[in-house]
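Document type: protein sequence-to-structure record

Subject area: structural biology

Format: plain text, a pair of labelled lines:
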Amino acid sequence: MTEENLLLRTNNKSEEIKTYTASTATIKQLNTFRTKLQTKYQTSVTESNFFNKNTVCPTCTQNIEETFRVNKIDHLQEVISKYETNLSEIEQAITKEEERERKFGNNLRKTELPTCFFKKTLSDSQQWIL
């Protein structure tokens, strides 16, 4: 393998490392979004359960107007449905980015020997120059 070829492969690996780094950052950001959405989803489910189970407020014993209660339940079901869709999309995006990371790791292991060889060759070349 020539030094030019090794330099080219090293530059290609540098680009792959940038992609890997971007994937790692993306996964971290997606996990943050997922956590926030899961919290909002759970809050909406809890609120929906409250309105489904109660026609009277358990704290103040005031009646909950039926129209308000039904409208609130309908609205919360729409919100919950949207959260479920968004969570599913985030899970798919995380899986895609994790797969990209795995591919990078597999590619890196395949090139460890040539990279080590390149470093040794470069080190030897520097000795000749000095």
User: Anything to note?
Assistant: The radius of gyration is 28 Å. DSSP finds three helices and no strands in the chain. The chain has a mean pLDDT of 81. The CA atoms of residues 52 and 73 lie 7 Å apart.
